[in-house]
Amino acid sequence: MSLSVPARFVVSARTRHGRSPRSPRPVGTDKQRRVRSGNREASCRAASVDVSPHADTSVRSFLHDKTVVLTGSTGFLAKVFLEKLLWEQGDVRTVFLIIAPRGSQTAGDRLTKEIIATPLFDRLRERHGDGFHEFIYSKLIPVAGDLGVDDLGLTPTDLDAITTNCEIVVHSAATTTFNERFDVAVNINTLGAKRILDLAKQCKNLKVMCHVSTAFVNGLRVGDAQERAFQMGDSIVNELQNGDDASTSDDTSKGLDPYSEIALAFEEARRTDSHQQASGSSTSEKELNERLITLGTQRAKLFGWQDTYVFTKAMGEQLISNERNDVPVVIVRPSIVEGAFAEPFPGWIEGVRMADPLILAYGKGLISGFVGDKKGVLDIVPVDAVVNVMLASLALEGNKSYDTTGNEASENAEIPVYHVGTSTLNPLNFLVFLEIVKDYFAQTPLKEKKSGALIVPPRNISVFKSRKLFEFDTWLRQDGVRVMGTSILEKIKPGSINSADRRKNTIARKTWDQLRGMGELYEPYTTYAARFSSTNVKQLRYEMSDEDRVAFPFELEQLDWTEYLSTIHIPGLLKHALRVGVPVKSSSDKSTSDKVKPPSSVEVMPIVTEKA
How far apart, in whole angstroms, are the C-alpha atoms of residue 575 and residue 584? Predict the structure, then answer.
């Protein structure tokens, strides 16, 4: 859609709203530092360090009357970011949402249906009442754009409106499929980052750009992984070789060149397509996709990354480091982003995230455990903690983007990187995670949708040392012996099994294939050897004002994993992602005796997994 620059861009906040700009809302100062959130209170523990004296780090003050560009707003993380932004700073001037039209749906249609209509915005509805839609549509401007197209496919009018007025750019869009086609992942995750950077360079009043990466760009590193942006030539495999090129291939000896990888991905896609057309080959689209999927996985592992997703995200960081010039950039790297701890309300989640297929598969009795490292950790983090780090880092780095003399910050300054994870701050042991899941479903078993029969998961839960052991155990649980026997019998004597048994066999094979695929995709994350240093995250919290620490908390060290998973995240997953009626405990309720008791059983749809 096309847009003209609204008149509100050239008038004051007082004129736009008929009142003076809203001052930051007061925050209580009792011992537990309670801050009202909608119609409930969220308890926020005070930071253990002294309050920073710096007055210019107020997040709300920085965001006041700013114009923001946001990508990925139809996705889980960016959507929560948007809601929190509007909740904490209602006097943000405008948010341009770059949204790709889908089919007959325009960017505006998707804004209405996929963003505003969700329960995520309920507390804003409550705050604004009948004026909610007027408030929302006065702030949000949907812009048709495509991350996979040069210049983002923006019309000249849209581009001019953004570059003339934008002060903050937040890039959260990505394809998060682990085994994506190489050309698709490169185009979205690598070149997409460059295209957003190019847009930021054109913004005349830009103060800061936030690039959302992933902590797992650390690839196959082992041990402490520092908060450092990738530079041109960086290669995990060369790091692991400790500079010894004796066993390094010609492809990797000179380090990783993202421009060469981009060219390779597109050339292979063109070559494959041209070959099919010239030869009249009957090769199916599925086979062509598999070739490009395989190529991406091969290139990722060649340079020391576990899959195409994290490989192409790492190359996106490289392009930003190489081409940013004097653009102030901050990189936020979350680990596995899961349901909200407190905001906008406990347990909010959309879709089935990475750890959730494991939870659901066990609850449905499909698996008795998962492949992983008994002594390892599963690095997950609530979405609201990630959003709070994003907002706080924008304020801190945005205020730093100009030095005390008024000169722009040097382009040689190192890009700040923030690992928003728990593997060093508050490690969740993988076996402990599985035990919490087991205990939850022992108390709250699911039941079959059709029969209503309770699903009794395995009494014991296991961590399998290898994927083959996991696959064999899962094969047995899917009645593999019977399936194999009846299949052999059918081959020997066609027509020997009835249609009902044939259907059971088909379902069993499909389920086993899904679970086997889940094991293959997720094993690198359940056996992950790197631990994400969060020094910058802790320093960020120190730099924040006392008020901002309460309004934008991310004290992951104090997160109680049993409480979060069993009373907030798993019930929230069932309620919001699967539409199962399960009460979710309020995070403000710290009394064990008053915890919300889940029902004795819940009904669940037969969902095993979905794309990560």
Answer: 8
> Which among 366, 343, 347 has a CA at the least distance from the CA of 604?
366
The distance in angstroms from the start CA to the end CA of the chain is: 30
Q: What is the pLDDT of residues 88-128, one digit of tens each?
A: 999 999 999 999 999 999 999 999 999 999 999 999 999 99
Kindly calculate the radius of gyration of the chain based on its CA atoms and give it in whole angstroms.
Answer: 25
Q: What is the pLDDT of residues 363-395, one digit of tens each?
A: 999 999 999 999 999 999 999 999 999 999 999
The residues pairing with 41 across neighbouring beta strands, listed in sequence order, are 36
Q: Is 151 helix (H, G, I), strand (E, B) or coil?
A: helix
Tell me which residues are annotated as active site.
309, 313
Asked if 525 and 421 touch (Cβ cutoff 8 Å), the reply is: no
Among 433, 435, 437, 455, residue whose Cα is nearest residue 359: 437
Tokens representing 107? 């960017």
**DSSP-derived 3-state class of residue 71:** strand
Could you identify the residue written with the tokens 């001052």?
23
The whole-angstrom separation of Cα 349 and Cα 355 is 12
Q: What is the mean pLDDT of the chain?
A: 83
Question: Number of helices (H) and strands (E), helices first, in the chain?
Answer: 24, 17
Question: Model's pTM, two decimal places?
Answer: 0.84
